Inverse folding.
């Protein structure tokens, strides 16, 4: 159930409602909106009786929720969540967020070379994997903490915000120390232990859609994170598995307007994994922005032919500049701009 | 095999090569390009020996073809095929082609009311089914010839080009008499008898991708049409069947750049069947144009709530005007314009 | 709506109900069951008013139908339909029906060699394509009427019932003259013109599930045939298209019990197209019979390595004998036997 | 690379080869076969030079490996791995292994009531979840350690071997203390941290195929476990995600012969999750055994209507007895028997 506070409800009134909810044995989740605050209730097995809450000062109405998710729903919070990373960088706001960088951090030199180019092109967020989930146990598994330290240096040197993946409880610990955004990969979208841990992390979480996940499953995975108290979640479409073989995955852009209808969380698109083919990344980046995405996460390598992983889907720096130029021309149609 | 003529080859030299190919027992398909003519060879079971052709006057080189398709391939013809429908209306050229109208022609009044609105909004092509392939034998199956006559009247009154579906040999006969473009629906993409008949039709063919067709299968279906002599084929992405349930189909926009890489045929997108959800049609139309599509085919009904079929994916006229306005703003980024 | 006659209703009473339905402007479909006759009503747009029928002599009750199909439903007819082909050969009865033979009829010699072997092994039904739907216009398209004549000779010589595919109205004409069962292939499952023509044919129809068809769509395709008056339809599972790549298609055996729950039509399984891999055909044949299928359609070639099509999924005669032996051992568990 | 030892190689010769491999910086994996021992080599980035090994005493030949997996491949080990759980219970041997029990352990009483029935019916292995991965954070998540303690009591009382799921490093710790087999669920098939931890566990691992996993991905996931030293892995097919909607998942039985061709690991089938429909479980169990599966894992609840999870796919005890009876009749066709 959602408790919708009145527009002029005071801080004290909101706190009082939360305390009452706790006294009933449930967990309150106050979410401030642009006009008024909504309070989600979780922890209940049966429907919550509204009587005890409706009469409290400041309460507007109590709304029963039929969808399986509560905290991620737009019913709870009308405005799209804007995730502010500081220094004028945000995801979900008017400016498109473009996260760029190599699949994996391979070395200090590789990370710095690529970072220099993407920063020069205008990107404000850098990606690069230190912990790499790989299909084969014999493939390069990432540099782990050494990779995180390289990423931290990149942040210092180029002023880029860092997005990097965590794959288990231990790596969340490390990643939240070094990075600005914790990425949870598609294969871990329903790793519920990891989601719960990320829900207690002190960084925003970028949650990628599993390659066979329905929209409801994606939203419920996000709900795991929010239900632990971390409301700063960014969703990401990165392609689903179908019979089609002209791309590595089938990029499902229709999920962008679908998410925006159902949820207040921002959604970005990964055209690199979404196609797996370098020569289609720019076209699909334009399409993603035109569909209304809040941003992109793109693989860029200063020398794709030499990449240790995913080289065939990485742009080179010149292609990345072209991408930024073209989406920058489409952004205004959606009322948006580049950083 | 492809015979690439020299840039300055004469009409006579091209004819002589074609006659030689025929004398070898094969079928020549001369396709003029912007700089030079290519001649495709079909009818051969084994690879064609190039020796007999390479020495003829005007022949540049003989290129073996590894792909299963020949006539639809960009190897054969470098420039995108532009299908000129007269009166300044073309598909595949610089101008985006937007085909709009109801799912089915239901009555003279319904067709005229919708046509008046889409023409006023700026569309030049009108769609509407007279023969409707329906999952149930008990659903409305279309007005057949009466529907075609209504479409012909709409053409006269509003100056719109007509696109309508044929479902078997008999209806091709009728449709080519009344319409400007013969549509072959997704369910018939591998109805090879119908494809062959359409290959002998005197109208261009709009070929929709089957909901479980790979790109190669789509191109081979088009090859059936071209191999019978009708080179004016427009491809259409209309969504594939996947596990995803937030849309009726999953619109696979990545097929747009993929087709443009492999084939010279134009490709348009159907965001109505591609999503099945009215509220996602405009977003996906923007995305399709941004991905590089040559046009759209969109369901518009003057009163969607009353439509006999597909009402829940049809735009009303005001929404269609918004769609045209928004794609008109994106088109220039791709070097294109609206009609 | 279904009109369920009383168990002791007379022929005259049934006829009288049918005439009344016709006088209401609808089409009656009387279907005799083991205990009583049901009469399906089609042609109605709105629900039929039961009042006019319930009071007629011999009428038990009038049952509204919620499913989109009527004539194929088990509600209409409790007993599984047995399709009797004469000479003790039937599909849907206690005996398993095994249809075996080459993908395509390639020559008189090839057909006779294979037929001799499958007949000797114990098969009573022979398959072989005279009209071949092929992905490429340049692939072998079948021997057409010459192939049908060869099949007719095989029937005479070996006493085998003939199953062969029709691909359009013209070929139905031919096939019903020469064959015992008209096959409609997976690609044509929603070729509604063909389905209607097959509904007026004088032979039973083997209807293959499309590679992306839901169960409801399969049943509705069969409904097209029954609604034209041909009640002798055999369904066939032949694999669906999925991401899985260890087989050509994914054989969906769960459709066997699902069909048996919803429909009275018999269902057989095609493990050859269903796997596309010779070495998996026997295992999946055993599984199909164990799941409850009424029979199999299997590709057998006297020399698979030389087949013009689908050689890599064809059994050789020795493997086919092993298949028959093994399913013959499983059949009794299901209360069935081999012919 | 694989080092195939001679049939008469001694223990000392095998050890010497292993030491040489270690001295080259790689990791040796000696796997005894019925006639001779194979030694897999992992840890190498480039192909291993065979020269240094071929000349050692007892070495037969050095075989380069092209498949991405090594330790799970049948090339390495010709005989199917039999996982002996003691007390005459094994998976992969001549006897079919049937694991039965409720989706989740809900209470001591529920576990005991169901265990009594499945033991009486003849099952030797009991399943029941103590840690439940659930799509919603608000669904019942299992009794955790309390559930494990109940399972341990069931083992004592009824002599059943226990199979239960672990979902992260902590729960592996617990599960390996209480259970006989550690299950890794479909959603965690590519949770590589968990796979590595399971590879260091002292219990066999039941690894379920992800709902969108290819066969190669399943085998590579198993390879993660083996590469850490735990060679006792059982694979499990439990249905894949497709467009088909008559079952919850599409059970892909063709993976059974496919695994048996490529790998020496045993494979069982889960018809409960594989169909999600109680009324199809028995038919698909028969089919799985007929396809050659080494066993089944089936949900049974003493009172399915009251189950806290998955009640609509659980058999009641009488249905489970019927299942055992029917697969017991099919088993001999495959040269197998029930316990």
């Amino acid at each position: 159930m959602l408790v919708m506070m009145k527009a002029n409800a005071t801080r004290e009134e909101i706190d009082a409602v939360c305390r009452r909810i706790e006294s009933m044995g449930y967990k309150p989740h106050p979410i401030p909106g642009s006009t008024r605050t909504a309070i989600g209730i979780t922890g209940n097995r049966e429907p919550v009786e509204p009587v005890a809450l409706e009469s409290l000062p400041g309460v507007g109405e109590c709304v029963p929720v039929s969808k399986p998710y509560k905290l991620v729903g737009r019913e709870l919070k009308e405005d799209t969540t804007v995730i502010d990373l500081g220094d004028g960088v945000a995801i979900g706001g008017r400016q498109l967020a473009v996260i760029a960088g190599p699949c994996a951090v391979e070395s200090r030199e590789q990370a710095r070379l690529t970072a220099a180019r993407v920063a020069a092109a205008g990107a404000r967020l850098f990606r690069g994997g230190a912990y790499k989930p790989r299909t084969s146990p014999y493939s390069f598994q990432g540099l782990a903490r050494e990779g995180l330290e390289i990423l931290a240096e990149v942040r210092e040197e180029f002023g880029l915000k860092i997005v990097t993946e965590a794959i288990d409880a231990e790596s969340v610990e490390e990643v939240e120390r070094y990075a600005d955004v914790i990425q949870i990969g598609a294969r871990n979208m329903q790793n519920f232990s990891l989601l719960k841990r990320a829900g207690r992390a002190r960084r925003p979480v970028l949650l990628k859609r599993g390659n066979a996940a329905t929209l409801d499953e994606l939203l419920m995975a996000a709900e795991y994170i929010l239900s632990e108290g971390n409301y700063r979640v960014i969703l990401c479409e990165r392609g689903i598995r179908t019979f089609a073989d002209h791309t590595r995955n089938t990029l499902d852009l229709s999920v962008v307007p679908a998410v925006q209808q159902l949820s207040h969380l921002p959604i970005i698109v990964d055209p690199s994994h979404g196609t797996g083919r370098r020569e289609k990344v720019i076209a699909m980046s334009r399409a993603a922005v035109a569909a209304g995405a809040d941003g992109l996460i793109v693989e860029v390598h200063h020398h794709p032919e030499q990449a240790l992983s995913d080289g065939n889907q990485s742009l080179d720096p010149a292609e990345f500049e072209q991408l930024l130029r073209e989406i920058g021309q489409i952004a205004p149609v959606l009322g948006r701009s580049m950083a």
